Amino acid sequence: MQKKAFTLIELLLVVVIIGVVYGLVISSMKRINNKEENLNFKTLPAFLESMFQQNHVAFVCVDNCRKCAIYIDGEEVRDVKPFMRDERTLRFWHYDVNLGTQELRFSSLFDEDEREFDVCFRYEIFEDGSSTEMIVETKKKSYDYHGLLHRVDTYSSLQELENSRQDELQEVLK
């Protein structure tokens, strides 16, 4: 009677397959970490879009932008290094066609113990694929978050951004 056993080649093949799968998982995790390390106002929408799977995804910063986290469907899934904490001038605006730029205030955040936290920044991608539209003004640049279908445009000043929006409106009205 002959016993059936794995051959040395079959065992080596299994080890190689496990090694390849392990390598793929590690490299994909490094890619996510690299994206997080290069996170800034310009790359934030693309970073969150990579996590978007028909769920509500939000990047929320509290405590004067010293603590940031990613939320999926209202649940905190991971902390993220706050890339804007060194900004001394940080203002947020909403652009209204009739009124121009209006200061944007973020609603408070409550934890599971119903403690309230003041939100200093919030960018969201909603279930329908739309996203927060806003203008972020720093000391050196202004960023125009014009929805996921548009790239984040960067301007040297808020006035330059407003002029661009007005020019865009004039083009549409022609």
Tell me what you see in this structure:
- This protein is α+β, with helices and mostly antiparallel strands and 174 residues long.
- The protein has one domain: minor pseudopilin epsh fold (3-Layer(bab) Sandwich).
- Helices cover 30% and strands 30% of the residues.
- The strands form 3 sheets. A 5-stranded antiparallel sheet has the order 5-4-9-10-11, covered by helices on one side. A 4-stranded antiparallel sheet has the order 3-2-1-8.
- β9 and β10 (142-145) form a beta hairpin.
- The longest helix has 30 residues, at 8-37.
Mean pLDDT: 84
Task: Bin the strand percentage.
Answer: 25-35%
- Structurally, how many domains make up the residues? 1
Helix content: 25-40%
Uncertain parts: none
H/E element order: HHEEEEEEEEEEEH
CATH architecture: 3-Layer(bab) Sandwich
Count every beta strand, where a strand is a DSSP E run of 2 or more residues: 11
Short précis:
Helices cover about 30% and strands about 30% of the residues. The chain has helices spanning about 10-35, 45-50, 160-174; strands spanning about 55-60, 65-70, 75-80, 90-95, 100-105, 110, 115, 120-125, 135-140, 140-145, 155.
Sequence-ordered SSE layout with sheet pairings:
Blueprint: H1 8-37, H2 44-49, E1 57-62, E2 67-72, E3 75-80, E4 90-96, E5 100-103, E6 109-110, E7 116-117, E8 119-125, E9 134-138, E10 142-145, E11 153-155, H3 158-173
Antiparallel strand pairs: 1-2, 1-8, 2-3, 4-5, 4-9, 6-7, 9-10, 10-11
